[in-house]
Model the fold of this input.
Amino acid sequence: MYGWLWRHLPGPTAVRVVLLVALAAAVVVVCFAWVFPAIAPYMPFNDTTVGE
Amino acid sequence: MSTQEEQTSEVAPPPRQSRGARAFFGTIGVLGEILITLGVLLFGFLVWQLWWTDVQGNREQEAIVRELPRHSVPTPEPEATETGPIVATPRRDAPPVMAEPAHAETFATIQVPRWDGEPERPISEGTDKAGVLDKLGVGHYVGTAMPGDVGNFAIAAHRTTYAKPFNRIEELKVGDAVVIRTATGDGGPGTDTWYVYRVTSSRVVYPKQTEVIAPVPGEPGAVPTERMITMTTCHPMFSARQRYIVHGVLDYWAPVADGTPAELLEGAS
Done:
């Protein structure tokens, strides 16, 4: 998977490292902004109210 | 023939991998990479839930309190001989009570002197997580009394995430002040008013025990005579198995125009 990604990234090693870091940062941003807020309601430790 | 068979049945790998073995080990490798990735993402979720929601929540709630329309607390005249802020005179007659606002509307703030260092938190109408508790801080149970009213002013907030307004709820002791300040809202009765409650008890209950937010806590259906406050949050920390409950009763009230409650000034001076 990551080997495949590495082989398909363009440019010399330095450029590939920069691209990988950028990709990882993009994944973190997407997770923090959309993915994690979407799954948080299903987590079992955030209920603070009585009832229901 | 016999040696060949022996070799495939033994655990020792063949000197050169066959196509099937390569595909097998390739799949194992990808599977391992996926599992490691999932582990890293899970750690990322913890970082987000336990740290980032606090960063974001504190920033948002601070902005809500700052932009909340309300009268400012009077400050002494520059020529006045007295120094320091004006202390509000406690009033123990029947306090004015504001009307219940629309869902997700921020109508008051809460300050607890015992929680030294904690900021003033906004209180908004409703207790649903998506609309109120995850974004606006403290939520008011719909249908329960408003601040100062006879009955039970019941509020809920997160304890470990989303800026965790009630993180230090276990530090509260009997007699501690819980100070509610209403915003200007529609300008009607009960707006721009201080309500100072005193903690009377704390307990741990199960989530189904809704009687803790009844007008008379613990006695659903009873006619209330006291002006109560009830705070609910999760318990134990990082779990939703039980709820931590703090009850309090109104000590006094005062218009914001009269000054600041002495309870809020003790820590500052």
